[in-house]
Amino acid sequence: MSLLENKLTKLGIKLAEPKPPVANYLGTKLVGDLLFVSARVSELQGVVGEDVSEADAKKAARDTLVLLLAIVKKDLLDLDRIITVVKLQGFIRSGNKFTKQPQVLDGASELLIELLGENGRHARTATGVNQLPYGAAIQLDMILQVK
Amino acid sequence: MSLLENKLTKLGIKLAEPKPPVANYLGTKLVGDLLFVSARVSELQGVVGEDVSEADAKKAARDTLVLLLAIVKKDLLDLDRIITVVKLQGFIRSGNKFTKQPQVLDGASELLIELLGENGRHARTATGVNQLPYGAAIQLDMILQVK
Amino acid sequence: MSLLENKLTKLGIKLAEPKPPVANYLGTKLVGDLLFVSARVSELQGVVGEDVSEADAKKAARDTLVLLLAIVKKDLLDLDRIITVVKLQGFIRSGNKFTKQPQVLDGASELLIELLGENGRHARTATGVNQLPYGAAIQLDMILQVK
Q1: Concatenated DSSP letters of chain C
Q2: List of chain C residues whose C-beta atoms are within 8 Å of the C-beta of residue B132
Q3: Which chain C residues have a beta carbon less than 8 Å from that of B125?
Q4: CA–CA gap between residue C13 and residue C11 (Å, rounded)
Q5: Which of C88, C96, C127 sits opposite B91 (nearest CB)?
Q6: Angle at CA B130, nearest 5°, toward B140 and C54?
Q7: Topology classification of domain C24-146
Q8: Were A141 and a residue from A39, A79, B122, C25 both cysteine, which residue would form a disulfide, CB within 3.0 to 4.6 Å?
Q9: Fold held by A3-146
Q10: Is B130 in contact with C102 (Cβ distance < 8 A)?
Q11: 3-class secondary-structure state, position A44
């Protein structure tokens, strides 16, 4: 078991077999040493700031990051091939008065740092949108550097 | 004529001379072997799930991808310089109840795969937004690896 | 003082010490020769096309680009390490009838070209969204090639 999966286990997180993409795209695409990870949405549905609280949205961001890691594991076979996290992009389905997208996305960013330390720190964009696939509350994609 | 343009012709698709950017940006920018293609919007205007159907939006996604390919051809001169499609990003102007952004974006993804086979498969993000330039229904940008 | 800062000074622009990120992310992340600059939002708040005019939004896009340059300077130490601007991504908080996102984003693009000439020209995506962090009107991120 990889070092990173050991850390996940200690945090009580188990990577499930990822569901296949719902449409015609790859889970990840490697070009040079950059791995582009396709967006996935949270299981949690709803509009943050209306029917979803900031705290629940933050937890959903963390859970969505776990989905991305399961996809990365499936494609790379070994999560210890991750050198560093380059960029995380998060779309938060937001009510017209909800403005704490950065605090929500911290749910994902903090897990990356717990798992990878300094190499888990990354550039980031946190944006509000009115709608996401399946009515989800959170959508994340990312770029990793891998070996 | 390039192999890829031959395939386009067989699909009945002709690449028109692209319109110049409406504002102060390039159609594409090359860095190393990565070609960043600027976003273009569909000619089709409207809100998907309200005044635009899912089927029409999917066709508009395909048509917008053809616009991007015309820009790539103008800048690269030869479409056969495309090695692989790395990442496709699609913004779908969505009514508050429309949640099938992935199915809409398949209009573009399926054409890439028809044209380029396995090399046309890519990482992807499909997001709903409330508004796009010129009131368009679809906006696409992408990253290609080229030689 | 770097050549680029000299040009900024001649334009009457002073780079302030950037505020630390409000959440758990880096201002920039370098991978190979690509510098991914995290999104920052404008100080100007409001909805473009409703309580913010197109002209004020364009100026806010320019001001937000100055914030990004201040962060890049802090991290690179010398702005003359910028080789070229690869990609600019702008999210414009848009009223449901506002469709001139490209004209607003020109506020940032034009400053990049004033400062860097041909190397300041870039690929771009300008998208409307219903909400941004802190209720800001504009959000920008970018990718630079650096030495």
Answers
A1: --HHHHHHHHTT--PPPPPPPSSS--SEEEETTEEEEEEEE-S-BS-BTTTB-HHHHHHHHHHHHHHHHHHHHHHHS-GGGEEEEEEEEEEEEB-TT---HHHHHHHHHHHHHHHHGGGG--EEEEEEESB-GGGBSEEEEEEEEE-
A2: 99, 101, 127-128
A3: none
A4: 6
A5: C127
A6: 90
A7: 60s Ribosomal Protein L30; Chain: A; (3.30.1330)
A8: A39
A9: 60s Ribosomal Protein L30; Chain: A; (3.30.1330)
A10: no
A11: coil
Structure tokens at B29: 């920018």
C-chain residues near A132 (CB < 8 A):
none
C-alpha to C-alpha distances, B61 to B5, B23, B65, B110, C78, nearest whole angstrom: 19, 22, 6, 10, 42
A31 in Cβ contact with B145 (< 8 Å):
yes
A105's enclosing H/E stretch is: helix A101-116
Flag whether residue C145 sits within 8 Å of chain B, measured between CB atoms. yes
From A126's Cα to the closest Cα of chain C, the distance in A is 7
Pairing of strands C123-129, C82-93: parallel
Chain segment A85-139, per-residue pLDDT in tens: 999 999 999 999 999 999 999 999 999 999 999 999 999 999 999 999 999 999 9
Do the beta carbons of residue B67 and residue B37 sit within 8 Å? Answer: no
**DSSP line for C39-76:** EEE-S-BS-BTTTB-HHHHHHHHHHHHHHHHHHHHHHH
Cα separations in angstroms, C80 against B41, B47, B133, C66: 34, 44, 33, 15
- Domain ranges across chain A: 3-146
Q: Which CATH number fits domain B3-17+33-146: 3.40.50.720, 3.30.1330.40, 3.40.50.300, 1.10.443.10?
A: 3.30.1330.40
Residue B63 near residue B69 (C-beta atoms within 8 A): no
Q: What is the mean pLDDT of residues B105-133?
A: 97
Instruction: For A43-87, write each residue's pLDDT tens digit.
Output: 999 999 999 999 999 999 999 999 999 999 999 999 999 999 999
Q: How far apart are the first and last CA of chain C?
A: 17
Interface-testing mutation among B111, B125, B132, B140, with chain A (most A C-beta atoms within 10 A): B125
What's the ipTM? Answer: 0.96
Cβ burial of A119 (10 Å; 0-12, 13-18, 19+) is middle
Q: What is the pLDDT of residue C95?
A: 97
* Total-model pTM: 0.97
